[in-house]
Amino acid sequence: MSDESRPSPAQTAVAAVIPAAGRGVRLGPGAPKALRALNGTPMLIHAVRALAASRHVSLVIVVAPADGAAEVKSLLDAHALPERTDFLVVPGGDTRQESVKLGLDALPPEYGVVLVHDAARPLVPVDTVDAVVEAVRAGAPAVVPALPLADTVKEVEPAAEAGEPEPVVATPERARLRAVQTPQGFDRTTLIRAHETVTDNVTDDASMVEQLGLTVVAVPGHEEAFKVTRPLDLVLAEAVLARRRLNDGF
């Protein structure tokens, strides 16, 4: 289907791709990070539910470890998920970029808006997911949720060895900086083109679209959409879940 005949993002369905093939070494040895338990439930299940909670999202594709697709499929089957949402598990690649591309390859043609979400951000609120989708539907080729920075940021000259002092070379203007979260949202054709043409300096999917020369826009993120990377993050995530249960029976 040509770009001219393809329905606009506002007219097409929304799918989410969750790359969950990484090992998560910073959380220590054991199960892959996405399968670590959070309040007794794997983080991946929390992330899948968070995306499926959006009224816009009708398909969630989980990109599993190459040798663990059957295990992840069984995991999804074992947990209560919204019946109105379809779920698909596909094996991933060696890198996050490869895994996202494999998820895109599995997308049925009717999905014109794609979200890419970190499995390690299990607590993203549905309002954030909806805001990203709505911005893509309004015409943005790529959208990221983002937060202002609380700390002053310094640019340094990296030390040759870890732990050595590093000279500060600049202090960027904090008002112009944002900490980017997920889900990141895209017009499908734009994201596919980015994955087909951009291979260098890839930090996230939005950076790939930037390298195409297109504008990426930011919408407000949320403090609860933090990435669970270190053991301390697990403690914070448990506290957020406890507060949600207390406040609204989450």
From TrEMBL:
Pfam families the record matches: IspD
E.C. no: 2.7.7.60
Gene3D superfamilies reported in the protein's UniProt record: Spore Coat Polysaccharide Biosynthesis Protein SpsA, Chain A
Site residues, Positions MEP for the nucleophilic attack: R174, K227
Keywords: Isoprene biosynthesis, Nucleotidyltransferase, Transferase
One Gene Ontology molecular-function label: 2-C-methyl-D-erythritol 4-phosphate cytidylyltransferase activity
Signal peptide (UniProt feature, chain positions): none
Residue spans crossing the bilayer: none
Family annotation (InterPro entries): IspD, IspD/TarI, IspD/TarI_cytidylyltransf_bact, ISPD_synthase_CS, Nucleotide-diphossugar_trans
Lineage: superkingdom: Bacteria
Main enzyme class: transferase
Listed GO biological process terms: isopentenyl diphosphate biosynthetic process, methylerythritol 4-phosphate pathway
Xref: NCBIfam families: ispD
Function recorded in the entry: Catalyzes the formation of 4-diphosphocytidyl-2-C-methyl-D-erythritol from CTP and 2-C-methyl-D-erythritol 4-phosphate (MEP).
Family: Belongs to the IspD/TarI cytidylyltransferase family. IspD subfamily.
HAMAP family hit by this protein: IspD
Protein name per the record: 2-C-methyl-D-erythritol 4-phosphate cytidylyltransferase
Originating organism: Streptomyces yokosukanensis
